[in-house]
Amino acid sequence: MLSIKNLKASVEDKAILNGIDLEVGAGEVHAIMGPNGSGKSTLAGVLAGREGYDITDGSVTYRGMDLLDMDPEIRAREGVFLAFQYPVEIPGVTNMYLLKAAVNAVRKHRGEAELDAMDFLKLIKEKAALVEMKQEFLYRSVNEGFSGGEKKRNEILQMALLEPTLSILDETDSGLDIDALRVVAEGVNKLRSPDRAIVVVTHYQRLLDYIVPDRVHVLAGGRIIQSGGKELAQELEQKGYGWIEDQAAA
Amino acid sequence: MSQTERELAPLLKRDYKEGFVTEIDADTLPPGLDESVVRAISEKKHEPAWMLEWRLEAFRRWEAMTLPKWAHIHYPPIDFQAISYYSAPKQKKLLDSLDEVDPKLLETYEKLGIPIDEQKMLAGVKVAVDAVFDSVSVATTFKKTLRDAGVIFCPISEALQEFPDLVRQYLGSVVPSGDNYYAALNSAVFSDGSFVFVPKGVRCPMELSTYFRINEMNTGQFERTLIVAEDDSYVSYLEGCTAPMRDENQLHAAVVELVAMKGAEIKYSTVQNWYPGDEDGRGGIYNFVTKRGACRGQGAKISWTQVETGSAITWKYPSVILEGDDTVGEFYSVALTNNHQQADTGTKMVHVGKNSRSTIISKGISAGKGQNAYRGLVKVLKGADNARNYSQCDSLLMGDECGAHTFPYMEVKNPSATIEHEATTSRIGEDQLFYCRQRGLSEEDAVSMIVNGFCKEVFKELPMEFAVEAQKLLGISLEGAVG
Ligand SMILES: Nc1ncnc2c1ncn2[C@@H]1O[C@H](COP(=O)(O)OP(=O)(O)OP(=O)(O)O)[C@@H](O)[C@H]1O
Ligand SMILES: [Mg+2]
After folding, report:
1. Domain range spanning residue A227?
2. Distance A245 CA to ligand 1 centre (A)
């Protein structure tokens, strides 16, 4: 599904990703952990096509396509979804409007008929119920005045709606209360299927109790310095990152 | 150039779609302005003697005035002697119906997408169009339906012949002929425009609309619009403007006067997309307009809504004089400046009556090298107990070579007045764009969605049919998000 080879990226001549190798197969859930500033969001941003990065080396293949060669909106329409660590506010644009535009952009790309207002309303209500989001949020401006947790829940709503093939969740669990955490986890688990893949960036083992990952990777200094099964997350929870970083340096 | 700007540049480079010239025989006065020109215009229009006197007085005042200077607008001096003050398409006789209008004129309007075919119109939207082509109103549609309701809607030149007393009673009563440089010029040489009169208690059965179009080379367009709403009446009026693409600058100096009597409401909406000049700032319309409304009786209401995307220079302050008690004045504005465009717009709200209220919502969008200035004056006179004003000025910047300037002025002579002012400036964020694109929207759609979101409070004030057009004008395709 996703194959990252020796990916190097820098921002304003500052190297941030220093050769990432990562294979994510269809049906898999991978967790990426790592200290603050290690490059997790940068990796997510590069995969989604955020501007401002220089890709200095390496390649990314997504379902056989050269991902780095695609515009962000094409990646999105091809099923790449990024749940933002910091969701963006758009004053004056209702959530409903953005979501409808998004769904129809994807449908159009796939050669499907666009949903009309009625069909869309039905769909969005169903998905909002799924993530336990009150309908009033649909009619508010995108993320404007949403609490931190509400913004994250809104990301999951979008994910549920768009049913992406590759979902990248950047610290979607940070700042969530217990109920919201459960909602996020359920949202992700519902998406789990043999033809989809999910990458969750997180700092906490807690999320991984709900979303049990197939693989766990530790990103530090712009490199994946350790990979393992779900037990790696538990070990990190107990010991911190120091021991691996020492190992990697040695 | 920043990343965003480089990305936005091709999107902003929309060509001026209305840039075509209609080949038509025109009856045009040679360039230049003196008393004989004023007399000639009045004569061509078969005006009553008092009207000629009125014009001549305005002309004398204008001659004695000096060109005003404004801090935030820069332009080369205008040679008023190089302009022709009258241009009329040559027609053999007065027209009774659309069938007799030169098909080329109709074609022009069709190209512009302006509905002028009464038959087609009847099937669709209920809008009466009074089209001003250069200086003469070519056709006024729906005249009869309106007459049946008691509403007068016709070219002002016609009104001067058919209802001279009515025109005389109100003309210049809101904007006196010596009000300012351009108003004086307009008073002396205006060639046509619209006249609307809505009698007591009548709700005008349809939206009234005038499309202005400047065609002839080197003609200034000086329309004069007068709208009178008697007690407890209502009228909604839309003015839409286009002009062909030309190298040289064209001058436009209109005057619009609104009179709302007791309990009456006038809603005046403008969608203006005159040629803004090319990317290097060559050509384009100079738009110096005086628009003012008077709420003369208790509870009268006037609201100005404008979407300004065109002209090289726009200088315009639709104002409301809140004379009666409990009167309401509103100003909703979107002004877009791109490339070398300059806009200096704003409003004046003058509170005279008790409990008078005014609301100002101004949205400025600057892109390219565009400069956008908002200037608002809220004046509360001594007797205006409990007057209230709320002003909100928001600026959106696209790129980093453009500018936005906000100048709120207040003069408050009554301590019971409440005045609130809020201002924000924001930049279309790369973050916002990326967020939308990550959800599958094209960059173009994302920009338009964000800009529309920014303008929403103003768009929702426009009549439905025209809100759509306004969005298109901003280079936008947005489906059903307004409302
Ligand atoms: N636009 C930028 N300009 C300069 N430095 C940047 C930029 N973007 C990221 N960086 C730097 O790159 C490094 C990696 O940032 P990134 O956001 O990817 O970290 P992260 O692993 O997601 O951290 P966290 O766990 O705190 O979210 C940081 O040192 C950050 O300061
Ligand atoms: Mg991060």
Report:
1. 2-249
2. 18
What is the distance between the alpha carbons of residues B24 and B93, in angstroms, rounded to a whole number?
16
Q: Which residues pair with B366 in a beta bridge?
A: B337, B397
**Distance separating alpha carbons of residues A102 and A205, to the nearest angstrom:** 32
Contact A238 CB / ligand 1 (< 6 Å): no
Give the pLDDT confidence of B428-439 residue by residue, as tens digits: 778 899 999 999
Closest to B439 (Cβ–Cβ): which among A76, A109, A141? A76
- In this structure, what token pair is assigned to residue A218? 């530790």
Residue B473, in any domain of the structure: no
Q: Do A105 and B437 touch (CB under 8 A)?
A: no
Ligand 1 binding pocket includes A223 (Cβ within 6 Å): no
Give a yes or no: residue B437 inside a domain. no
User: Chain A: nearest CA to B469, how far in angstroms?
Assistant: 19
Q: Is residue B138 included in any domain, yes or no?
A: yes
Q: What is the mean pLDDT of chain A?
A: 91
Count how many Cα atoms sit within 13 Å of the Cα of residue B466 in the half-sphere of its side chain.
27
Q: Which residues of B touch A (CB under 8 A)?
A: 3, 7, 429-432, 434-443, 445, 449-450, 452-457, 480-481
Count Cα neighbours of A85 within 13 Å in the Cβ-side half-sphere.
15
| Cross-chain CB nearest to A88 (options B431, B457, B480) | B431
Describe the strand order of the beta sheet including A54-62 as a list of residue ranges.
A14-24, A2-11, A54-62, A65-66
Give the ipTM of the model, two decimals please.
Answer: 0.95
The answer, yes or no, to whether any atom of ligand 1 lies below 6 A from the CB of A33, is no
Q: How far is ligand 1, taken at its centre, from the CA of residue A108, in Å?
A: 35
**Whole-number Å distance between alpha carbons of B463 and A7:** 54
Instruction: Closest CB to A158: pick one of B439, B442, B450.
Output: B439
- Provide the domain count of chain B: 1
Phi, psi of A50 (to 5 degrees): -65, 145
Asked if the Cβ–Cβ distance from A52 to B480 is below 8 Å, we say: no
3-class secondary-structure state, position B116: coil
In a domain, B455, yes or no: no
B354-382 burial: b if 16+ Cβ within 10 Å, else e: bbbbbbbbbbbbbbbbbbbbbbbbbbbbe
A86 lines ligand 1 (CB under 6 A): no
**Other beta carbons within 10 Å of A167:** 25
For the domain that residue A27 is a member of, what is the CATH number? Answer: 3.40.50.300
pLDDT tens-digit readout, B276-319: 666 666 666 677 889 999 999 999 999 999 887 766 677 788 99
